[in-house]
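Replying to the earlier thread about multi-chain prediction with a worked example.

Input:
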Amino acid sequence: MKKRVKPSLFRAVVTLPAIIYCLGLILLPILYVFFLSFLTSDSYGGYTYDFTLNNYVEIFEPTYIVMFLKSSAIALLVTFLTLLISYPFAIFLMDKTEKKQNFLIKLVMIPFLTNSLIRTFGWVILLRKNGLINTGLMSTGLISSPLALMYNTFGIVIGLTYTLLPFMILPVYSAVSKVDRNLISAAKDLGASKWKVFKEVYLPLTLSGAFNGSLMVFIPAIGYFFIADILGGGKVMIIGDLIRNQFLSARNWPFGAALSIFLLLFTLLLLKLYRKIGGRLDELGGGI
Amino acid sequence: MRKIRRKKHFYLRNLFIILVFVFLFLPIAVLVLYSFNTSKMNILFEGFTVEWYAKLFENANLIDAFKNTIIIAVISTIVSTILGTLSAIGLKKYNFPGKGFIDKLIYIPIVMPEIVLGIALLSGFTLVKLKLGLFSVLLSHIAFSVPFVITSVRSSLDTLPKDFEEAAEDLGAGKFKTLFYVTLPLLKPGIVSGALLAFTLSLDDVIISFFTAGPGTNTLPLYIYSVIKTGITPDVNALTTLMLVATSVILTVSALYQTRKLRKL
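Result:
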């Protein structure tokens, strides 16, 4: 008689990894940050165990509020730009055969195989004062002096839009490809203009996909400090810069922790909204 | 007349798609181009050379960073693929106390700002007094990859016909035997795409490594961050080009292999 494995052992093998992973690598670290956010920092880069709410109060200082608004405005603009590119891209892709679609969507992911920091440097070569775009435009005589394409908000917006575009394309494409083609032909047969087809058919049916992508773009867009550093030249600070500085240069961990918790709560709020409009958690990131 | 207009629309649509790809590949194309540049600065293209591909191997720091990056990417892919696959199966099949909570928590790293995850992990590591270094970076990469593997495997699990597993068990196969011979082979597409995603995310990561590496640890993004202010030399471009060629070849081969297998079915 063959010995059969007890089902409870199997059960442990498939359920314990999830539990250990969640508790050890997600919950425990977040709870510790939460704890840190109530401590008091001393002036030597450490902290004392005097519990306080001051770190949270400090978040609402006018200088920080202005920065949050600016960073959020940049992130919103980037989200809008990626939406503006992804929708026509996904809809136009529908004309292609399934095989071609699969290939092209895989191609969208290829840039990720090169580290995003290196790709950001690729933009430096293109955008800087004596970069490829400026020298190209000047040699054609279109401009007489170089344009300021980086070390400003413009550079940050380009860098973020570029880096985050695939995160919008994937969920939007996945949602658009699920729209029943018959609905589109019906709308067209009934004389709907292209804009109307988009507004009345595509948009309502792909809303959760668009929101999914917007989450995946907006949230990193307020945190990707390296893009703001390199293409913004440190002139424009985004929320990610502020948090990083608290941990690395200012060494005020409790305030950095409070900022992190604040950002996390904001993310959870957006996530709740996403689920309210019918989004599914397991589709986050686009069902790639 | 209408046909001509249609055709024009067709070309315009294709043009748009092409432009999007130009945008996505432009900085990479520039990096590749400048890997053949005789000038030491990545500013003007002065002449063609392949010397950077040889000089690359003299830059010990860069080679070291490359090695660490690949080691971390490979190990974190293997570990997170195993963890993620088991978790996806476990969460689908079993109920346990706190499952509802775990089931939500597991998706948080996908949306949570990377910087917050990086800081949380850094704080967690200091709490348990884990020395920051390659191992902490590895753990962190596993931490952000697992949820992506789970979502990928889960989409395969949802389409999995239940009768196969039941048939195997009716015929006397134990749970583990069913897992290895029935469930896992059927889940292969989801597992493979999850693993590829984990590998890609690990290669692409900057922020999480930035916080969890600690001083003196050398991986590619950290090396590049340290030299980017003074200017990147073309040996980095050369390495990037080689990596891009290698990963593209691997991807193409695996894609061809999969379609050939599909055809055989």
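The first helix of chain B runs from residue 2 to 34.

Feel free to reuse this layout for your own posts.
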